[in-house]
Amino acid sequence: MKINLLFSIDDSFVDQMKTTLFSIYQNTDHKHQFTVYILQKRLLKQTDAIQEFCKWLEMKYVPLVIGEDSLFEQAPVSSRYPETIYYRLMVHKYLPESVNKILYLDADILCINDFSNLYKLDLKDDLYAAASHKKLTNVTKMINQVRLKNYEAEGYYNSGVLLINVKKTRENVQASDIFHFIKENQYNLLLPDQDILNGLYGNKILSIPDEVYNFDVRKNATYDAISMGEWDLDWVIHNSVFLHFCGKEKPWQEKYRGRYAALYKYFWYKAMNQ
């Protein structure tokens, strides 16, 4: 099976992305043909190193250089939300016409089991497949519906793992809609790119289980409560596919002490010393 992977990073996140890729290589059937696309403002300084790393993993690397495209000039930008986070919303503009499906991953993710069943999903008319990080109460769901003015959305989806129906986004996702949404909701956007995704397209997202495909490592107690103790560490190791190290504390930081710190550091060490 041909599998397209998508990242959107700058030079400061190359090592993290390499760790994600190495974990995919270790836990996914090697019979698949991988192509790694990286959205980037300018050609990454470590382009040659990325090329060699992907070659070692038997993956093809294709840089998608945005350059001085004025398309994103109106997007809200800050130190926490750089311009790069918006690239995935318009990725269909930069991908080859032959690409009809691609899996976007944040670079703070580990793959610990095969994800081919996710990639095989038939999205039909849905634009994306994504997971909501928690079982929302009706009150929280209502707040997000009102805040983002999308009353048809079933939940608030995390954009860190996003299976994209490129064929359909070419037909339905327009820059003008995105910027109009930003203008109309600029004071309500807490997580700009994710809010845009949910506000504009929340009713066109196929829901996937977060405990499997977007396990938030900060929320062990929440998962334990929801599952009545079923989703313990052993269950996660055997069943979860993507561990997502959400939040400000990251596993590559020296003082990080999360439950999956050692697991992340293992893959980091292997990726950095290949």
Number of helices: 11
The oligomeric status of these chains comes to: single chain
Portion in helices: 25-40%
**If strands are numbered along the chain, what order do they take across the biggest sheet?**
3-2-1-4-7-6-8
Shape: globular
Number of strands: 10
- How can the largest sheet be summarized? 7 strands, mixed
What is the domain total for the residues?
1
Task: Look at the structure and name the CATH superfamily.
Answer: Spore Coat Polysaccharide Biosynthesis Protein SpsA, Chain A
| CATH fold field value | Spore Coat Polysaccharide Biosynthesis Protein SpsA, Chain A
Could you give the distance between the termini?
26 Å
β-strand percent reads 15-25%
User: Which H/E pattern describes the elements?
Assistant: EHEHEEEHEHEHHHEHEHHEH
Written description of the protein model:
About 3% of the residues have low confidence. The strands form two sheets. This protein has a seven-stranded mixed sheet with strand order 3-2-1-4-7-6-8, with helices on both faces. The protein has a three-stranded mixed sheet with strand order 5-10-9. The protein is an alpha/beta fold and 274 residues long. The chain is 35% helix and 18% strand. It is built from eleven helices and ten strands. It has one domain: Spore Coat Polysaccharide Biosynthesis Protein SpsA, Chain A. This is Glycosyltransferase family 8 protein.
